[in-house]
């Protein structure tokens, strides 16, 4: 009750800040369990942050309706590539204002992309922009060949309304990368005024690799989007329709986000009309608690383009999480998961059938690879693990030459606070592992989203459940991310497979879809053999919202959006 009271007080303050006097049709309330790590596009790399950034800021290009392949202009009105696919020229929209009142020009776009290339911190998704424009995913601290001259030549204005990108080699996914929320255009003059990078060669090295999560721009954003931030605190965020928006003022005036950890509290808020859309938990929660209730609409069979897995860190960089640090029943060594038999034991201990039945209400599918089955390159013939008590026992008995079975272990595993699906998955694994040998112990910890991200990126998590939503619609964005030793999730898994690395690099160098698919099939088979991850089944998406909320349909839902409704706020209305 105490936590709920805090949230209500926060909401009242924000309502006052928005000046909401025209009733519920004027205010859109979202309730989820995640906190918001950042509002700086230059470091945004999570969906909780992304749902605000995609409405406060804008990119050059965006996805057209529900399409995953067709793009349309947003801050760009047209674009063209030269014959060899290495130069892209963008004509930029005129008459656009930032929330600060500054006019949008090419200088802002040039500054934004250069800022992303300069900083390119481990917390961000700028590695794939850098790969396209500089030929490397590293920043200048890790790759000394990166110079200011290379960055300046990669993106520059040819005139105040024309932006030119120059790539070292063709990249067929480049345009899709520009639609990623993290490549939103920031207000250069505003950023410089509040103490962000000044955009010059004289200071660029001071900003290389800098974590922008808590930057001045995160605290005081200024974008060209249809909504501007009004107020933010630990439990809530308020945005208001931007009167000067070039695309016309949105129909909904105010948007309020509330962090509400308890699922039951979110469900009651939706049922009473205190929230318009919520993070509604598992399919079972939606079907049993919300579907069929008065005033509630349920949208089902949504496309699932995310992949989730349980990570097993092969080189744990957190001594405090290791207990004794030995295989003595009281802890684990840092290289616990480097033994393939440990990984296989955990894989055989996860019950996908039970998870699909209890969490996904029978509407789940065990994927063979950490790639959506709608993407090219997915191979349905790659085998999958299923719960097998005897095979799990056999694998554990072989691990560490029999020492693991004789001594036992105590391991710490994490999942996101408020995510019932993640919690249930980890509880299924814990129960089965501990049933195999009384000397096996799995301790579960719920963590705030931002904390778990930070610990995972630093290699401090032992075992956690996490997922990936695509930055752009290409199989490389999933397979390189999960399986490459240079991929984004390397710190969370800490394995290096030279054969997989070679296949993934080769797939990046060819344009033939069939050749790429053959290589990706080999990656999937190898990943299965080595049991690098526990693949969590994927289910058709389902969301619940108030029936008066209009604009959420299967035709408008795009899984590339960070917002749980799969659309932009400006396209919604309330009756």
SSE layout:
Elements: H1 2-18, E1 27-32, H2 47-56, E2 61-63, E3 71-73, E4 76-81, E5 87-92, H3 106-119, H4 127-134, H5 148-154, E6 155-159, E7 162-166, H6 174-178, H7 188-193, H8 216-219, E8 227-233, E9 236-241, E10 254-259, H9 263-272, E11 277-278, H10 283-290, E12 296-302, E13 307-312, H11 340-349, H12 352-358, E14 364-365, H13 389-398, H14 403-407, E15 409-416, H15 420-436, E16 440-447, H16 449-457, E17 463-468, H17 476-483, H18 490-493, H19 498-508, H20 513-530, E18 533-536, E19 538-539, E20 541-546, E21 549-550, E22 573-574
Parallel strand pairs: 1-10, 1-11, 15-16, 15-17
Antiparallel strand pairs: 2-3, 4-5, 5-7, 6-7, 8-9, 9-10, 12-20, 13-17, 13-18, 14-19, 21-22
Pfam families: SBP_bac_5
Domain Solute-binding protein family: 71-489
GO molecular function: peptide transmembrane transporter activity
Can you put this structure into words, describing what you see?
The protein is α+β, with helices and mostly antiparallel strands. It folds into three domains: 2-35 and 234-303 and 540-574, D-Maltodextrin-Binding Protein, domain 2, CATH 3.40.190.10; 58-212, Dipeptide-binding Protein, domain 1, CATH 3.90.76.10; 307-539, Dipeptide-binding Protein, domain 3, CATH 3.10.105.10. The chain is 33% helix and 19% strand. The protein has 20 helices and 22 strands. A five-stranded mixed sheet has the order 8-9-10-1-11, with helices on one face. Strands 16-15-17-13-18 form a five-stranded mixed sheet. α11 runs antiparallel to α13 (389-398). Mean pLDDT is 93; it is low at 1-11 and 17-23.
